[in-house]
Amino acid sequence: MTPPLRWALIGASDIAATRLIPAINEVGDTITAVQSGSRDWAAAYAATHEINSWTTSVDELLNRADVDAVYVSSTNEKHHDQVVAAAAAGKHVLAEKPLALTVADARAMVEACERAGVVMATNHHLPASPTHRIMRTLVADGAIGQVRAIHVNHAVGLPQHLQGWRVDDPIGGGVAYDVFVHDVAAVRALIGGQALRVYAAERTGAVVAQSLMTVVNWTDEVIVQTHDSYDNYHLPTWLEILGTRGAIRSSGCMTGDPIGEVRLFRDHQVTDIEVGPRDDLYVTTVRAFDRAVHEGATPLVTGWDGVRSLAAVEAVQASLSSGCSAAVQLVG
Ligand code: NDP
């Protein structure tokens, strides 16, 4: 029986409150402390979530011997420095997406964790989704033959309480860093490989992109089409995988909730696929992280996977600036 992992939270965020704190509790791990830049917010957050200790200092948190791992869910521009500091302190790291604002910084984060010999995972949640896991199995089992194209509709309506930095921050905000980045991680988990070249078009809101469409050359064999937005309050999300012998369509699957349906299309016959247990995505992620720490398993989404998805975002920005397609930096 392995001891529970003792976590600390860097960033007193909504995603930690709504998803990760419940997931950490669910798997039987513990939370030692929370850090936030604001004293009042840190204290209130600790009280609300029954966390015994809080601080405004990342260093103080990282110097604690009773912390094994950190979950970094601050705003995007802080991730790099916080993860590098955590690695230097010998703490395992589960870091939020986008890992950083540049691929160079994200690489440096993963390399710092490798040098320190600590586990690093990226919290891209979709590969943990029951619908995505069954689609991955269908593809791996050859149910649709060779994959040729993927369509992703990840256009969502952004709730009022999550607007803030997502729509106001010209550097870390916008759908590319926030939503498209998940599409790339999801496609990699489904079919492997990585994005090679991106063509992007956007519709900008007051400050940042509110709606983004891309066409991505994915390896030499597959084309991926994505739509991400903050202002679709009506149509459910979906993902379709088109293969040489069949196709898969999942509706309602681009979400943090374990919902959605999966159908297999072959020769004009449609089969509803049994999705299996509707396990919470974040619980699955934390369980996989624990196995990585205790048993040396590979996390569900690695640090390098997080670098790969950020590299595609950088190519989106390059394509938007130039009006042409842009190559994606390849990550080994
Ligand atoms: P929030 O806006 O809820 O929190 C981000 C930071 O804002 C907090 O860490 C805190 O800063 C500060 N903050 C928030 N509320 C207050 C407050 N009332 N008073 C003072 N400061 C406050 O961010 P999200 O939870 O939406 O996102 C956090 C990260 O998680 C981002 O990197 C995002 O991309 C990622 N994310 C990932 C998701 C996933 O499913 N994988 C889903 C949603 C977000 P401080 O650092 O000082 O504590």
Q: Which structural class matches the secondary elements?
A: alpha/beta
- Point out poorly predicted stretches: none
Number of strands: 15
Order of helices and strands: EHEHEHEHEHEHEHHEEEEEEEHHE
What is the arithmetic mean of pLDDT?
96
CATH topology of the largest domain: Dihydrodipicolinate Reductase, domain 2
Q: Mind explaining what this structure looks like?
A:
The structure is a single chain. The two termini are 35 Å apart. Strand 9 and strand 10 form a beta hairpin. This protein is of the alpha/beta class. The chain is built from 10 helices and 15 strands. Helix content is 36%, strand content 26%. Helix 1 packs across helix 9, helix 5 packs antiparallel against helix 10 and helix 6 (130-140) packs across helix 8 (175-191). The structure holds NADPH dihydro-nicotinamide-adenine-dinucleotide phosphate. NADPH dihydro-nicotinamide-adenine-dinucleotide phosphate binds at residues 11-15, 36-38, 41, 73-76, 96-97, 123, 125, 162, 164-165, 178, 256.
